[in-house]
Amino acid sequence: MINREDMLELTRRMTPKRASFTRIAGAYMDGDGEIDGSFNTNFLNLSFEEKDKNLAIAKTIPFSETNEQLKEYTFFSNGKGSVRQLLMGMRQCGLKNDALMYTFYEHVAEHYQAKGEYAIFVFHDRYDIPVKASDKERLGESEEVYEYLICAICPLEGEYEPGKPECGFLFPAFSDRSCDMEHVAVFQADSRKPHLELIEEILGVRKENAKERIEK
After folding, report:
1. Is 95 left (phi over 0), alpha (psi -120 to 50) or beta?
2. Alpha-carbon gap, residue 176 to 184, rounded angstroms
3. How many whole angstroms separate alpha carbon 26 and alpha carbon 4?
4. Over the stretch 152-166, which tens digit does the pLDDT of each residue have?
5. How confident is the prediction for the chain on average, in pLDDT?
6. Please, is 32 exposed, middle or buried when counting C-beta atoms within 10 Å of its C-beta (0-12, 13-18, 19+)?
7. Around 75, how many Cα atoms within 13 Å sit in the side-chain half-sphere?
8. What band does 137 get if pLDDT is binned at 50, 70 and 90?
9. Residue spans per domain, the chain
10. Distance between CA 24 and CA 21 in Å, rounded?
């Protein structure tokens, strides 16, 4: 289960003045799932307005309804050639490796079931997790850096103008204020009609975690 406070800790920083995103990359896909254009830039180079617009997209994923729209899943495969390995490579290079990014875009396009043109946005961030006392007061310097990716898949509402994300994910998961490399938090805007292909084929993660199976 995802702790709502963990997600709020991340989203409180997602403002143009406080955000620490290092980079944003993405691709625009046409109706046939072909790449129609791409971008890859330093987040700090964006204007205030561009930061605000893109942060709204990124924030949608962790700020969504916890354990309803946003659920935690376990990877099936962690070995060479797995999606998890690809995401780890993207994370380690801070999205700067265009070859890895295009591999990811093409992997998404191969499986994603879109009704029209859409965009894939990927954000990279490093969060110095502050040490907190039991009363949640900040004590001082951080002991861990949480380096993570947020991916949002959005329908296009105009020429290169993304609408609200339909689905996406946070990798690695952020659990108990710490990095959890074995899990990913998956977002579905409509939890009643989810993009199952994101879960099963694009990410290759388990449909249910152990706790969900026990509860059923």
Report:
1. left
2. 14
3. 28
4. 999 999 889 999 999
5. 90
6. exposed
7. 21
8. low
9. 4-14+48-131+139-215
10. 8
Query: Residue written as tokens 């409509």?
Result: 190
The region that residue 168 occupies, defined by phi over 0 for left and psi between -120 and 50 for alpha, beta otherwise, is left
pTM: 0.90
In sequence order, what are the beta bridge partners of 39? Answer: 26
Lowest mean pLDDT segment, chosen from 15-24, 52-61, 78-87, 150-159 = 78-87
Distance CA 99, CA 85 (A): 14
Can you spell out the DSSP letters for the chain?
---HHHHHHHHTT-STTT--EEEEEEEEE-TTS-EEEEEEEEGGGS-HHHHHHHHHHHHHHHHS-BTTTEEEEEBS--STT-HHHHHHHHHHTTT--HHHHHHHHHHHHHH---SS-EEEEEEEEEEEEEEE-TT--EEEEEEEEEEEEEEEEEEEEETTEE-S-SEEEEESEEETTEEETTEEEEEESSTTS--HHIIIIIS-B-SS-HHHHHH-
Tokens of 159: 């020429």
> Can you give 146-163 as a three-state secondary structure string?
EEEEEEEEEEEEECCEEC
